[in-house]
């Protein structure tokens, strides 16, 4: 059983409960969520963990010690929970407020928080934190939520307490992910399908470029608006309902940027379904081709890549099938963050070294004179939120 020594060293006794929730990587289906399309993420073997016990103090509050930030937050549970400092506590406050709004009384707790999900690297440490908190409150209060309701409660916390207008993917996969499965999620109907992937001959590599370009906020809003414009011109509720042919026929009615944004989304929804089929068939070269096609479409039509993400994909392509790489693409909203690659499991170490060396060499020109060190790790599709000790 997983131990959280932090709890014992801070609070002087072993914890009564331990729960965990994973980060995630989106294998394919980028910028499709707010167009009512499909996404295909998986939970990764990186977890946010909370160890907890009923508070020994008489104060009606949750005391959370975060070992990474070496910071402590206090949440008063005797009244309706609102936003407050420290900023990171708002993800937990929002979740606790969601339980309160369902009439659940939250007891005073002492909590040790530890995490192996990289922060702000596009691997959804935020959803891992929310879903971990929700799993803890379910366990402590005995109020088990339906998985969809749980994910939506966490999404609402991110919207209202963290101010991030995220889609449903991150929380859904952190709640519902299963070991050796990807999660095909229909962002319109919220239906999910677990797609098995337990072939030991393949592995996923997650390559963090360790750059984050600042323009991302406004660009994201602009892309969303362009997608809406395209759907309006095409006369459909969302780009999910449009076809490539219909878009082609309407080409003259929209500006070139709107056209290209829509072409990405319509193509990407199709590729996501095809990639899921490729995984069902264990057709790894086909899955890899869809991943490359996704990247080029994000780079050229949706224009949310950046030179560091492109460098990683080019390096992977040059290693190619002979070196054990099936495919690679940027993952997440773009303008930095991480790439995901499908590789031969036996070649993970060699590919990791090759990418690290070549990426460093490719990034010597500007910001960092000695090149940027990427952070690379492999993961199999992992389990969603779990109660480790109850
Ligand atoms: P991502 O979800 O891609 O990692 P976000 O910006 O959405 O990036 O969320 C990162 C934020 O979530 C951090 O800045 C921090 O406020 C909060 N957070 C996530 N995990 C933790 C943790 N283990 N400890 C403290 N804060 C965390
Ligand atoms: Mg996030």
What does this structure look like?
The structure is a single chain. The chain is α+β, with helices and mostly antiparallel strands. Helix content is 39%, strand content 24%. Strands 1, 2, 3, 4, 5, 6, 7 and 12 form an eight-stranded mixed sheet that branches. Strands 9-10-8-11 form a four-stranded antiparallel sheet. Strand 6 and strand 7 form a beta hairpin. The longest helix is centred in the last third of the chain and has 25 residues, at 256-280. The protein is globular, with a radius of gyration of 21 Å. The structure holds adenosine-5'-diphosphate (ADP) and magnesium ion. Adenosine-5'-diphosphate binds next to strand 5 and helix 3.
Task: Give the structure's gist in a few sentences.
The chain is α+β, with helices and mostly antiparallel strands and 390 residues long.
Discrete helix count:
11
Quaternary structure classification: single chain
Strand/helix succession: HEEEEHEHHHEEEHHHHHEEHEE
**What is the CA-based Rg, rounded?**
21 Å
Bin the helical content.
Answer: 25-40%
**N-to-C span:** 12 Å
Q: Give the overall shape.
A: globular
Contiguous uncertain segments of 5+ residues: none
Supply the helix-strand structural class.
alpha+beta
The tally of strands reads: 12
Small molecules (ligands, ions, cofactors) in the structure: adenosine-5'-diphosphate, magnesium ion
Largest sheet: 8 strands, mixed
